[in-house]
Amino acid sequence: MDRVVLAFSKDETADKIKMMLDGSGYDVYTVCHSKAELLRTVSDMDEVLIIMGYKLPDGTVDDVYDDLMEGQKLMSIVKAERQSSIYNQDIFVVTLPLNRQLLINSVETFVGIIERRKHRAKRTPEEEKIIRDAKAYLMETHRMSEEQAHRFIQKRSMDTGAKFIDTARMILNI
Q1: Residue 80 burial (CB < 10 Å; 0-12/13-18/19+)?
Q2: Name one GO molecular function term (predicted).
């Protein structure tokens, strides 16, 4: 995934991000300034990484995520105090202040997570049972839906850098 679309309401911000990405192997396809423009731009792209701030004039990062298709991934660059305002845990969040190396490392990490998901081996029946049990535990003890439990394990895995199955085992203390 080397196609990147930037979405920022201010040209100066987009230009700074674009300059940071120059020479990193991630070419910026275009810059969009609204949610509507962004969705039109990426509507025919199977795989794309969208990098945006917290908010565009016509929608937040969560609103944009809700309208994306499979294969379209979203990364948000926000002030630290805005991070807790992003409710969708599948949005990769990078907090300010930002420098070139941090941005490139974050993009590489995010793209690496996506690639690993595509190529990961099938889980064994034992691993599937552990994951089901971990979700059931979270659903029962924390009154989560199955989707919330899955996202909780997924987010915890991403935050700690652990494999999904290892996080499920940790939840069950096995």
Answers
A1: exposed
A2: RNA binding
